[in-house]
Amino acid sequence: MERRFLDGKAGRFRSLRSGIVVAAGLAALLASSSLASADDYRLGMMDKLRIRVAEWQTADGSIRDWSVISGDYTVGPSGSISLPFVGDMPASGKTTDAIAQEIGSALQKQFALKDRPSASVELSEFRPVYLSGDVEKPGEYPFAPNLTIVKAVSLAGGLRRADAGQRFARDFINAKGDAVVYMADRARLLVKQARLRAEIANQDTIEMPKELQDKPEAKPLLDSESALMNTRKKRLTLQLQALADLKQLLQSEVETLAKKSETQTRQLQLATADRDKVEDLAEKGLALSARKMAAEQRAADTEATLLDIDTNSLKAKQDISKADQDEITLRNDWDAQLAQELQNAEAQLDELHLKLETSNSLMAEALTQSTDAARFDTSTGAASIAYSIVRDVDGKAKEIPVQENTALQPGDLIKVTAGLAMR
């Protein structure tokens, strides 16, 4: 009964010519699963999964879509997910690839299938992180890759507003967090500026900006901009090549029409001479009027053909001129676009420079105007902000002291304690 229900819900794609089309469809269906399984991330409670299941049927060369099972699932408090026809399946501590394999095997066993269904398991949402302590808005926040302590504190509204003694530390750390963000944006814009200058100079490589030569995070930015530059350059080259091919084709057409024009000109000369002779004979009564009319018609047809050839040749030359103009326009638009993008990047850099100066001024003001500034550790230039995370390690909660740039993991509890460093 369950098998017939699934058959009624199945969507079929008939194979064309061979099993290549079906295999390609199946590969596309499982692409997200391979991406998700590339990382050895272990699932945990409250992780959200997107599951899709399909089955390749060798008997009739089609794909069955198990839509009744496909959908979004959440790892429950027991560490399991509940699937139709399969029931509860343990997921906590496993990778998405392992879950995909188990789903396919369970369905094959449940329905005694000849071909094992292929499951795609994609991590659609990480389990959240939690902030507590001296933050403005403690609570639960969504996790995102590359989330660090300082970013998580920013999500929670920064340090908690407290008495005058702690307000100094809060203002300092907030200004410092802004400065970190501005510095990251500045690095991206500097590399973008270098890429635009390389494109304007028609260079094949991008020179690393001097400001970023000692920064380890600059190389990935440079690689990304280099890939973008190569893609844009290939697109422009293809467009210019298409115009060059069109001009070459039109030029060949003009040359061919010129040869036809020479041939038709000679034929017109012959037809005109023949017509003149017939007219002389007709005037002397030695030629029939029908022959005279035929000679005139032949000369007229030859002349009309020659006019058509000349018209087509003129049109082809006009098309060549238009292609030349299109090439000039394309190059001018490209140069104008590069100049505009460079101008925008430089304007954004100037704006970020002002924001950085403002953040530095705010940090300096937090030091000088606080009544408790004498208790600030000026030798290190840092307020007394202590961070720690509570993380499950081997099934047990463990508190670990961390720094503001420490990368977080899903499910972490971040504890923030703000104060002033005592001398």
Automatic annotation (TrEMBL):
Residues 233-260, 335-362 form a coiled coil. One of its GO terms (molecular function) is polysaccharide transmembrane transporter activity. Gene3D superfamilies: Outer membrane lipoprotein wza domain like, wza like domain. Pfam families: HH_AprE, Poly_export, SLBB. Residues 129-164 form the Soluble ligand binding domain. Keywords: Coiled coil, Signal. Residues 182-359 form the AprE-like long alpha-helical hairpin domain. Residues 1-38 form the signal peptide. Residues 37-123 form the Polysaccharide export protein N-terminal domain. This is Sugar ABC transporter substrate-binding protein.
